[in-house]
Write a structure and sequence with these properties.
globular, two-stranded parallel ribbon, 8 strands
Amino acid sequence: KLAPTLLAGMPAIVKPATVTGYLAEAAFRMILESGCLPDGAVQFVSGRLGPLLDKLGPQDAVGFTGSADTALALRGTPNLLRHSVRFAAEQDSLNATILGSDVAVGDPEFDLFVREVVSEITAKAGQKCTAIRRILVPQGVRGPMAEALSAQLAKVTLGDPRLKEVGMGALAGAAQKRDVLDTCALFADEARCIVGTEAPRLTGDDLDGGAWVAPTI
């Protein structure tokens, strides 16, 4: 969202989600301190927007990532409708990856499938809107696929992401950790956990109390 805005020569106002707001603020501060953008090209709002949406006009644009309910509420803002303000939303994505029925264990496509799933689960601790949420494979390779994913994820080291040997860091905060674990608990009545542990082994110093969740399938 930020890149095309800057390429179009338009200033951008960034409003991050509350749970990850402090991370966005740290990244924003690095942008300012680098001097890579002209003054005012990017602005940052921490907290509620207030009446900002009521100040927009027909040459402005709003980009949103989040839930469908929030997107609907924002899209229905009278001022946005009155002035035909462009509104684009990425909402409630449930991305899946599907293994074709013609792929067998040992095929290059099988190994590529495993690598991509492992990457999506561990990159940003799996917390990005485009991450794979569902893994669909033919019944005949379900067992081998589970074993392959278990073996590869077992090699992933959790801990301080500044360390070279660490392949996965923590979630953004305690609230996000609770949300992830509560959601996993909802699946317990209908699904079997094939990968995951409640007490992952960590690499690094002073990591107690962090929002650590092991890769879980």
